[in-house]
Amino acid sequence: MIHIENLTVIFNAGTPDERAALDGLALSVPKGQWISVIGSNGAGKTTLLNAIAGSVPIAGGSVVLDGIDRSGEPEYRRARIIGRVRQDPTAGTAPDMTVMDNLALASRKGPRRLLPAKPASLKRRLLERLAELGMGLEDRSGENVSRLSGGQRQALALLMAAMTGPAVLLLDEHTAALDPRNADIVMSLTRRFVRDFGLTALMVTHDMRRALADGDRLVMMHEGGIVADLSGEGKAAASVEDLVRLFREVRGEEYAEDRDLLA
Ligand SMILES: Nc1ncnc2c1ncn2[C@@H]1O[C@H](COP(=O)(O)OP(=O)(O)OP(=O)(O)O)[C@@H](O)[C@H]1O
Ligand SMILES: [Mg+2]
Questions:
Q1: Fewest CB atoms within 10 A around its CB: which of 72, 166, 197, 249?
Q2: Which ligand minimizes its atom distance to the CA of 39?
Q3: What is the pLDDT of residues 136-181, one digit of tens each?
Q4: Whose alpha carbon is nearest atom 5 of ligand 1?
Q5: Which residue segments constitute the domains of the chain, with CATH numbers given?
Q6: Contact by Cβ (8 Å): 10, 133
Q7: What whole-number distance in Å separates Cα of residue 217 and Cα of residue 195?
């Protein structure tokens, strides 16, 4: 469960470049809900994930995760209950460690809710989880991660972020750097993990088809706030064209000819 109130992040405070990247944002996410987050460049999507994870200081408001106010908690403490996958496939794994050592490290970091305690059982379970990725990594568990492809690394990063059952899974354009085939594989793994591990997830994406097709709810951000929030029938009935129209409305006439959004 995530409960965010009046969340404000200001960069370059007190200088001429002062900018509110989040401006009094409010968002409540029930346990087990998956939200797609869309919005144009600079809308504040990454800053929202950073503020939840404690990677940027907040100027005001609160972030409650699993019933506890984490607003004052440092990033390393929150990392124990937060799983995170970024756009860059090299960001989520340690290249000079083996696949198995990466997994073992991730298993110690998280809440371990979903993993066995005994070392032998843990290793067996981690190998099973690797096999479930469908990439043959169970046979390469002794190899350094630097030898894996981008798609394999991102699948591994996702497994590491999700397998311990974090309170929240934060995905920031986590398929954007992959070729279409690997993006599809990582998305179908995302669907499976969110469902099988019962995760609460926020997924930032620029792919509006994907944002509509996946997840239980869709949130559109603009200038540090939420300007649209669709779920249930409203989300089911929405089309990419509807989202583009919404984008144009919130951005004003100035951007009315922006065709990139349909790409
Ligand atoms: N470390 C920083 N220092 C100063 N300004 C920042 C910093 N990080 C983000 N910003 C500014 O805050 C605003 C929101 O940025 P953010 O990265 O959250 O946008 P985003 O929605 O993730 O965009 P994108 O789709 O391009 O990833 C932008 O104006 C950005 O320039
Ligand atoms: Mg971003």
A1: 72
A2: 1
A3: 999 999 999 999 999 999 999 999 999 999 999 999 999 999 999 9
A4: 11
A5: 2-252 (3.40.50.300)
A6: no
A7: 15
Query: What's the CA-to-centroid distance between 258 and ligand 1, angstroms?
Result: 20
In this structure, are residues 85 and 163 in contact, taking their beta carbons and an 8 Å threshold? no
Residue with tokens 């930032």: 204
Q: What is the mean pLDDT of residues 235-258?
A: 82
How far apart are the CA of 168 and the centre of ligand 1, in A?
21
Ligand 1 center to residue 1 CA distance, Å? 25
Pocket lining for ligand 1, CB < 6 angstroms: 11-12, 19, 21, 39, 41-47
Q: How far apart are the C-alpha atoms of 257 and 46, rounded to whole Å?
A: 26
pLDDT digits (tens, 9 = 90+) for 22-68: 999 999 999 999 999 999 999 999 999 999 999 999 999 999 999 99
Substitution candidate for ligand 1 out of 7, 11, 207 with most atoms within 8 A of CB: 11
Ligand 1: nearest atom to the Cα of 44: 18
**Which strand ranges, in their side-by-side order, compose the sheet holding 34-38?**
82-85, 168-172, 201-204, 34-38, 217-222, 225-231
Could you read off the pLDDT of 68-97 as tens digits, one per residue?
A: 999 999 999 999 999 999 999 899 999 999
Nearest protein CA to atom 6 of ligand 1, as residue: 11
